[in-house]
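Final paragraph of the annual report: two paired records, presented back to back.
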Amino acid sequence: MATKWEYNDTKTVLTLTLRDDVTFTDGTKFNPDAAAQNLIRFRDGASPNKSFLASLADANAVDDTHVALTLTQADPALLHYLTQNAGMQESPKAFGNADLKTNPVGSGPYILDTTKTVVGTNYEFTKNPKYWDPSSVHYDNLSIKVLADVTAMLNAVKGGQLNGAKLTVNTNNAEVEAAGYMYPAMTLVTLSGL
């Protein structure tokens, strides 16, 4: 959502230039005020990663396309953290929604289909018709399956239920090879079905 960023000389103020063509799925316009609210909310929230914004003293809209992040001290990791969950944005109108954890209101390329989703098992998404970059959305629907362990994941790949998977341990490498798949380092990637 940021198209440009610049630090001041002491690296304690980061000014982000934001897109002005983004709308949240509830129709709310994304703007620097929404970005500032999200950053403060993440810093003060319950996320296990809230330490990502520990150096954030304040965030304020400067004008219609700029937000300034004031830091307590220079933080060389801040830009990296903003590419992770610390930088995710949701509609400020949804902050108090009772179903916020199961019905997110974001601005991404896909919208969670709560009628087809089974929380903790599979998450079904449909293309966001109002996404700011429609040329980058390649699928009308997206399905994300939650698998309990590496064995379940490998079985799903072998059974043709997945197009790809990332294994986080090397304990099943022999089984991966025996099934005819290749793995770089610690991951299994299959392109079957694509």
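The closing record of the year follows.
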Amino acid sequence: MNITNEKNSDSPELKRTLQSRHLNMIAMGGAIGTGIFLALGDTIHQAGPGGALVAYTCIGIMVYFLMTSLGEMATFMPVAGSFETYASKFIDPALGFALGWNFWYNWAITVAAEMVAGALLMKYWFPDVPSIIWSVLFLVIIVVLNLLSAKAYGESEYWFAGIKVITVIIFLVIGTATIVGILGGESIGLRNFTIDEAPFVGGPKSIFLIFLIAGFSFQGTELVGIAAGESENPGKTIPKAINTIFWRIIIFYLGTIFVVGAIIPYTQAGVDVSPFTMVFEKAGIAAAASLMNAVILTSVLSCGNSGMYASTRMLYAMAKEGRAPSFLGKLNSRGVPINALILTTVIASACFLTGLYAENTVYVWLVAASGLAGFIAWAGIALCHYRFRKAFVAQGRDINKLTYKAKFFPLGPIIALILCIIVIFGQGISYFDADTIDWSGVIASYIGLPIFIGLWSYYKLKHKTTVIKLEDVDLEMEETASQNSVK
């Protein structure tokens, strides 16, 4: 049973204004954030440089399969709702409903979390200014950028992400020079890879725990699929973004882990100080801490900016398809889903208020639910692609006519789905002990699952939906996609 919103069928569509360079930076910026600037030190401390390299390589391969899966569907059917629409068309409307709302609250909560983080960063320079002032200011900036147009969002994200990319490139150059002794006064070489328990610390369990952290670091790459609905030429820009961005991200992450692991002993790495700051200081660069604080602040604003964009587009798409109130499908004169933006801002602000004190249990649960929601979305992408390709063949279509074809099908989406499921159910492994179980930690780790299952069950029971047969899967947007393909 596929329910659509007929009232919105004649309403104006999102304007296709995002260019290739915007998509490239949206995908790049979505994956390069505090995970690389802050959390990387802790991952090396826990698993050693070798363990961190193994974990990030594995998760990178999974993300590659997910990106190519999303790319194949997004070039064929470029829509703002992306995998929410795909799940509804290719699998079951109930799954699409659950994935859509799951993705929306994921990024709405992320916006709130980034506002809290931004305020904490500003205390480095202005310790006496109340945090709420900075949080409100950052939220206003993000709302204004998203209110202007999709192009304004894309342009701001281009520059936000550009700062992060340039910082990582400079870091890799300076780090390499420090390793060989050009900077810092001595040749460090690779001796830190073999001190104490290095390169692998804590064995397979530590690598698995870092595998979970690595997954959070790469979340945001799927935003290129959401942006497809407003891309000028999806058939050309999406494949280019996917083929180039993935390898750049992998090189950046693995290169950064290698440099940090070589220069900073794993026993000294942690989350108190950015590993970038430690390396820059080792190279003799003055004001390294202030510089990295500014870069991390840029990263926080970038993530909040992307979160606002992604969540509003998802609400808009669900409203167009009857899985959200119809008023959320309204566009302003600049093609921005204005009501969806307002609602997301209100919810993000409410979540932010619970985070004024980081110890607040509700806030901790919100952030935990948001993190898990990202992996659920990834699992949905893998499942959607598997069903899409099977339905494509079952209906007698020629896969060679696809504008972009994912490699390694069906192995790719199957591996990605299995790894996502492992990550989802492995979230709380550190809270289970032979003697005691930290139930508070367990609840925080898995609270996203009952929320998702509740959304799915609600829609399933209300509308009595069933899994769509492969022969009945709706693939009728092919003409729209082909019109935007490379000619």
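The chain has a mean pLDDT of 83. This concludes the annual technical report; the extension proposal builds directly on these records.
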